[in-house]
């Protein structure tokens, strides 16, 4: 018989929780959100010796149980609520051998909640290098726990850890410290008032601002209203608690850890001096970005061309082998091009995340945060805004969620408001296809014009974000404290497994998250484009035949004329034509109009929409790109997608706020409709004006 136990991975940020999680669960993991809030929740299953199955949760990084951010709240709420279905049978505190002292603070707090706790000391591979040696038996005895000394990088100690978890019944749950030492008199009263509750839990409930599950809410509310001390007295007691804990930890480490500095050699300081240098730091960062964009371009063009033509042939093939009819058309003209519009971006999204996760894993991203803090401050942002702005290159949604660790509300709000200017992966498809149509293929000292244009668009996005932050900083009247703490983790060679799992996870969430929307909209569009009201649509065939009766058109040409007549009078054609007057000054026709309208749900729909629109009634086996290239501007003549209209479109997409999901997240994070509404109106109006100026200037 197998039994499932709950295991919670807890620890300071950057101690390797996620690496331990990956080592334990491999591919048996899923990523979701905690109910009601946007903190990421990672869980997975691990099979242990003797038929034990462990359900493992990778909790957000936290320095202590004294919560100061939403992420940290998640941890406390789980640990204080025995009724939560994820309440751990066993807590695994992951620490890093180089920062044991700081890491143990959290460990002692969790022990004091009388939860059976295992201590993982990770990064053992760094010990020799740092001259650290540990007396594990001594530490186990003093801390009253079992210790697994592991290195996820070298894959050492993982099976011992599994062994410890599977023997969860032997893990002690006695506390490290006696909570009442904090203030004996006060704690005596507490104990008398709530005799069946754990003392340290009472203390946390009183001092922390936490939500509880429905079940013991009444009791918890009674506890938190037990305020016989003032707020500032409680604060003082909390400080006293921290000091007591560090005294205990120092005592333990004095006997259990020796650091021989003579053996420690460190290149890192030299390295950091260059990477965070006032000049070289930016130069290196710039070169790294340039390399990344060039690589995204060069490496993914082959697989993308292949995918593009594969989907075109697939449509063609389906039309040949299936009987003619509405269903075949839906498949060949709606669903397959729609799917193609998703799959084609997998190579680029995967490469982008590959680079981002390598930069994060290696520890370089923290240097960028440090480096950029100097500049960001001037614009009313924090060094920590760099992470949202850079993650915004993937998607604004996680990026806006990542602002949660910015402590100052004003800086956080500004970051939330400007992040959607960063070029997200949904803009990428639009940029790529338009660039390939309107920017020539040549090279300039080895860098292609197309890649440079792409990089320029990214810079425009960042620029817009920074300039608007500057303006917001001047006009927003919000007082809030600013402070800056950033940890500089050691440089590490990125671990293949961590990088691969991130790339896989992000690509999957693009395909299934954005993909669902793209596919659904493609199908709706196909219907709207294939059916229409009234005579003009229904009698298209006879109307066109009479109209061109005198000319000698070939079968194919007639067919083409009928198809475009139908499209023009279909539901979607009517909508597109209705808005055409407003977008004509930007150089667009009604077909692009349809794509823009549908992109207000999600930008990535643009290419899929055009693919669907140009596929309807089209018989050739041809790629989306070729079809777009051969479109003619109905008024001005010449190709519809030329330099002027192309640049205008690029700029429109760079600035417009076209993403319902982002608006929803902004509403959730700012708790008001005011900010997302302003974002939508201001960004889109600005986009329109810039696109208008660009087209009028360039045409
Ligand atoms: P988390 O923030 O606690 O989830 O930590 P991660 O699992 O993301 O790891 C943080 C960093 O530590 C990454 O750069 C990892 O590559 C690195 N890391 C994880 N485990 C080890 C290890 O055993 N040895 C070394 N040297 N580095 C590690
Ligand atoms: Mg992690």
Would you state the CATH class of the domain at 1-263? Alpha Beta
Number of DSSP strand runs = 11
| Mean pLDDT level | 83
Strand order of the largest sheet: 2-3-4-1-5-6-8
Ligand identities: guanosine-5'-diphosphate, magnesium ion
* Gap from first CA to last CA: 75 Å
Strand content: 5-15%
Main pleated-sheet profile: 7 strands, mixed
Uncertain regions: pLDDT < 50 for 5+ in a row? none
Description:
With 699 residues, this protein is α/β, with parallel strands linked by helices. It has a domain at 1-263: 3-Layer(aba) Sandwich (Rossmann fold), CATH 3.40.50. It contains 31 helices and eleven strands. A seven-stranded mixed sheet has the order 2-3-4-1-5-6-8, sandwiched between helices. A hairpin with a 6-residue loop joins strand 2 (29-33) and strand 3. Helix 13 packs antiparallel against helix 21. The radius of gyration is 30 Å and the shape is elongated. The mean pLDDT is 83. Magnesium ion binds at residues 17-18.
Layout of secondary structure:
Layout: E1 3-11, H1 17-25, E2 29-33, E3 40-47, E4 52-58, H2 70-80, E5 90-96, H3 100-112, E6 117-122, H4 127-130, E7 132-134, H5 136-143, E8 146-149, H6 158-166, H7 184-193, H8 199-207, H9 217-224, H10 231-256, E9 257-259, H11 268-275, H12 280-321, H13 326-343, H14 346-362, H15 364-378, H16 386-391, H17 396-401, H18 409-418, H19 427-438, E10 443-444, E11 447-448, H20 449-475, H21 496-530, H22 534-538, H23 540-547, H24 555-569, H25 571-583, H26 590-599, H27 605-615, H28 624-629, H29 643-655, H30 660-670, H31 674-698
Parallel strand pairs: 1-4, 1-5, 5-6, 6-8
Antiparallel strand pairs: 2-3, 3-4, 7-9, 10-11
Bound molecules: guanosine-5'-diphosphate and magnesium ion.
């Amino acid at each position: 018989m197998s039994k499932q136990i709950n295991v919670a991975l807890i620890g300071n940020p950057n101690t390797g929780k996620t690496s331990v999680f990956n080592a334990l669960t491999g591919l048996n993991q899923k990523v979701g959100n905690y109910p009601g809030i946007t903190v990421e929740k990672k869980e997975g299953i691990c099979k242990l010796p003797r038929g034990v199955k462990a359900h493992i949760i990778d909790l957000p990084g936290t320095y202590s149980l004294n919560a100061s951010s939403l992420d940290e709240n998640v941890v406390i709420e789980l640990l204080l609520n025995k009724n939560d279905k994820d309440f751990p049978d066993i807590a695994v505190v992951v620490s890093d051998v180089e920062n044991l002292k700081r890491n143990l603070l959290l460990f002692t707090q969790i022990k004091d909640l009388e939860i059976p706790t295992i201590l993982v000391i990770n990064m053992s591979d760094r010990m020799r290098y740092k001259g650290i040696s540990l007396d594990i038996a001594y530490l186990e005895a003093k801390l009253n726990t079992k210790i697994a000394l592991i290195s996820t990088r070298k894959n050492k100690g993982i099976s011992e850890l599994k062994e410890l978890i599977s023997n969860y019944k032997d893990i002690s749950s006695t506390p490290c410290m006696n909570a009442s030492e904090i203030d004996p008199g006060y704690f005596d009263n507490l104990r008398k008032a709530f005799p069946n509750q754990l003392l340290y839990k009472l203390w946390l409930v009183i001092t922390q601002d936490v939500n509880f599950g429905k079940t013991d809410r009444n009791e918890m509310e009674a506890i938190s209203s037990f305020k016989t001390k003032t707020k500032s007295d409680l604060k003082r007691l909390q400080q006293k608690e921290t000091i007591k804990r560090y005294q205990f930890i120092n005592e333990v480490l004095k006997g259990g850890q020796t650091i021989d500095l003579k053996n420690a050699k460190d290149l890192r300081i030299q390295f950091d001096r260059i990477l965070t240098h006032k000049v070289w730091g930016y130069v290196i960062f710039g070169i790294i970005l340039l390399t990344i964009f060039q690589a995204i371009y060069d490496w993914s063009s082959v697989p993308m061309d292949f995918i593009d033509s594969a989907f075109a042939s697939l449509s063609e093939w389906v039309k040949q082998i299936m009987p003619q009819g509405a269903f075949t058309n839906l498949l060949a003209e709606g669903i397959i091009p729609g799917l193609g519009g998703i799959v084609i971006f997998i190579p680029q999204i995967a490469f982008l995340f590959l680079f981002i996760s390598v930069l994060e894993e290696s520890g370089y991203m923290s240097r960028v945060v440090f480096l950029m803090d100097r500049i960001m401050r001037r614009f009313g942002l924090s060094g920590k805004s760099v992470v949202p702005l850079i993650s915004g290159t993937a998607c604004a949604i996680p990026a806006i969620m990542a602002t949660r660790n910015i402590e100052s509300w004003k800086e956080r709000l500004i970051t939330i408001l400007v992040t959607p200017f960063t070029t997200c992966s949904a803009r990428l498809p639009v940029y790529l296809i338009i660039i390939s149509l309107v920017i020539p293929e040549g090279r300039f000292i080895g860098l292609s014009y197309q890649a440079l244009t792409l990089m320029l668009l990214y810079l425009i996005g960042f620029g817009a974000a920074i300039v608007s932050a500057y303006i917001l900083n001047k006009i927003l009247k919000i007082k809030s404290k600013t402070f800056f703490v950033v940890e500089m983790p050691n440089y590490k060679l990125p671990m293949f497994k961590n990088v691969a799992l991130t790339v896989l996870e992000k690509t999957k969430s693009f395909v299934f998250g954005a993909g669902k929307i793209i596919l659904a909209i493609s199908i709706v569009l196909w219907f709207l484009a294939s059916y229409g009201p009234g005579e003009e649509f229904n009698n298209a065939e006879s109307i066109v035949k009479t109209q061109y009766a005198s000319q000698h058109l070939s079968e194919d040409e007639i067919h083409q004329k009928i198809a475009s007549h139908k499209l023009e009078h279909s539901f979607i054609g009517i909508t597109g034509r209705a808005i055409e007057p407003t977008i004509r000054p930007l150089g667009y026709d009604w077909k692009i109009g349809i794509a823009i309208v549908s992109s207000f749900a999600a930008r990535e729909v643009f290419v899929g929409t055009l693919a669907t629109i140009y596929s309807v009634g089209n018989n050739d086996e041809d790629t989306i790109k070729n079809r777009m290239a051969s479109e003619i501007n109905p008024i001005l003549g010449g190709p519809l997608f030329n330099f002027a209209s192309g640049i205008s479109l690029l700029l429109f997409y760079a600035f417009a706020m076209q993403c319902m999901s982002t608006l929803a997240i902004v509403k959730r994070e700012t708790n008001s409709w005011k900010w997302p509404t302003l974002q939508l109106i201001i960004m889109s109006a600005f986009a329109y004006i810039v696109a208008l100026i660009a087209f009028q200037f360039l045409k």
